[in-house]
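Troubleshooting log. The previous run stalled partway through. Resubmitting the same two chains, unchanged.
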Amino acid sequence: MLSPYRALDLTDEKGFLCGRVLADLGADVIKIEPPRGEPSRNIGPFYHNIPHPEKSLYWFAYNSGKRGTTLNIETSDGREIFKKLIGTADFVIESFAPGYLESLGLGYSTLCAINPRIILTSITPFGQSGPYRDYRTSDLVSMSLGGYVYLTGEHDQPPVRVGFPQAYLHGGLAGAAGAMIAHYHRQLTGEGQWVDVSIQEACAWIPLDSYNFWEISQLLEERHGAVRVRPETGARLRRVWKCKDGYVNFELYGGALARAFTIPLVAWMTEEWMAPDFLRQIDWAAFDYSTATKEEVDRIAEVVSRFFLTHTKAELWEGGIKRRCVVYPVASPKEVVNNVQLNARDYWVKIEHPELGDTITYPGPWIRPSESSLRQQQRAPLIGEHNVEVFAEIGLSKTEINMLKQAGVI
Amino acid sequence: MKGSAQALEGIKVADFSWIIAGPLTGEFLGDFGAEVIRIESYTNPDNLRSISPMKGGISGINRSATFARYNCSKYGISLNLKHPKGLEVAKRLVAWADIVLENFTPGVMERLGLGYEELKKVKPDIIMLSLPLLGHSGPLANHPGLGVQLSDLIGFGNITGWPDREPSTLPGAYTDLISPYCAISALMAALDYRRRTSKGQYIELSQFEAGIHFLAPVILDWLVNGREPVRKGNQCDYAAPHGVYRCRGHERWCAITVFTDEEWESLCHVLGNPALAKPAFKTLMGRIENATEIDRLVEEWTANHSAEEVMMKLQEAGVPAGVVLNGRDLFENPQLSARGFYKELTHLEIGPHHYPSPPFKLPKTPGEPRMAAPCLGQHNEYVCRQILGMSDEEFVQLLNEGVFE
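Second attempt completed without errors. Output:
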């Protein structure tokens, strides 16, 4: 859908996803890395555990579909080449510290003077303004300042982050949405603009309603991971249950949700002679946790937990599907890869890596638009892989490219 | 809802979606100037309308601030879609709209007579976006579930928490915060495509399929290297100290992460504890090896300072650090406040309260919460009379026939 458009992508891991989404939608996304390669190529894990900038699986995952060039924009020649590329581009995406591009004479006003249609998307930890503007960050710091870490983990342990870095993915994806809204406006009016994305703000959207609880009820929402403790009664409500070979996610809902949770589960336990009388007599549609006592909830949990322990994850997931009962596995990567739904929908895509002599299976489309299958993915670019074709397009000869390579410009 | 320059001015959205992923997509569109009509019904109101916090602790269909925060910048109408005339009004809204949003269980829109093929008859270039949990096709298309369970199906729970404890399921509906950005990117591309080709389209976004990308390297690591991920709390393989440290007060914590020698030296300088000056701690290898002891020494210091002090002192010295913000802290955070993140609007029943702004600023066409979330059916008359151009008589007749129930 975006095949007429070009994006220059100068981001490190803070902004990878923005360009990735534009590339998936069909845009020509050109990565511009420093001459020896973007340092984020050193983020693991690595292909066959070999630490090498051309073997980062993190890089592979979030830069596929993009072309790759190298350019040292800190040199005068590099800046001139970059300015020429600006004339050919519709989007620029960057995640440098606020003020860095400006200090090179490549701030928004310069880019806009060259190409008033350009949309510059800056993805930074705290945005381009405010008292934290120049603060440093990391995944853990951003997720903490977004309010999600406080809520994650067990009530008797310190707060914990999601086990794989998430903050920059939220920032990058928010950047794509912002850039695309600006794009819609630009295509109607010819007016580009500078999109300012704050990773902290993207993270502050993740907690469901913690600020809300404070504002409306002056209550602080607390952590509850595998077990949630009801503040009124002290009852412990389990959400993660041990089964034969791992864990499953299940909630003992009362009320309207019981129809897809507790009611079919109790019926299932009855089929297997594992539902004691007291459990079968509970009216789940009317069951209310704000009044159920701790002892009552413990008694229910005990028999339910015994039931789960007699089954494997796969039995519970498949049996739940048959009975329209919401028991979901706490899945491992293997179980995700083998998921019947994903395979029936032909989700996974194989991408060739000729230089590795291998084909790697990747997660498939984010979205499925009827008017264009998302573009057939290309593997992520090698360092400077498309230098010659991209720079030739703006009029650099092979001799000049050679010269600039030796001078450390590209 | 008037403004001078709005990016999406003139774009019209019929929002049939519910819970979070769909409504939040509509909300962001409304924030940037699209005219969004949220369609609900009294017989089947959004589950979110029954979720706390409720204003004054009193339950009521219009009192949930959680529903409100995902539905500002929209008009709201109540429409009985099972009533033939309700369906007719819905189709008139589709004829008016550029975009239709929905995320019911697959098959529901078709059964109501509002499937894509039907909508195309009403409006040939309509752009319809569905956000099903597991996908519109496939053996599990109709299997129920919520974002809470989906995050475990993708594998987030498996890797989150402590090595010696069970997995910590993620709080809230994590994947619901991933889908809206993908949806908006695709919708904008579809609008641009329609402008160039006059073609509308149907866009399917399986929240399962989109969410997996947030763990893609973990999945690749399994596929390529056969590595099973493990839970490791806040630990990072190539940094120490790297964690969340207890500060002065009840449940006060600050995250501190040290990646480089330079950051380590700055940290030592701020803490001023000679015990940290050990040669063994000078190298990253040494710090990783002695992480437990370093954590203890760092916490000895943080425990005597407020979390805010810890963050500020370390940030001033160039060490990445951040208070582990709770709900109140978020609401009062100086950085979020300086950028006007939470905006106050007056809701008909909740009264004045705050709505978060989109995490991206477009200075030439600013987007922000522009109108408090609607009460159920609040704009029935406005939408029918002003937008659909019904006569008074027609509106009153529909009202009497129970079309808005």
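Takeaways: DSSP finds 18 helices and twelve strands in chain B. Chain B touches chain A through 148 residues (CB under 8 Å).
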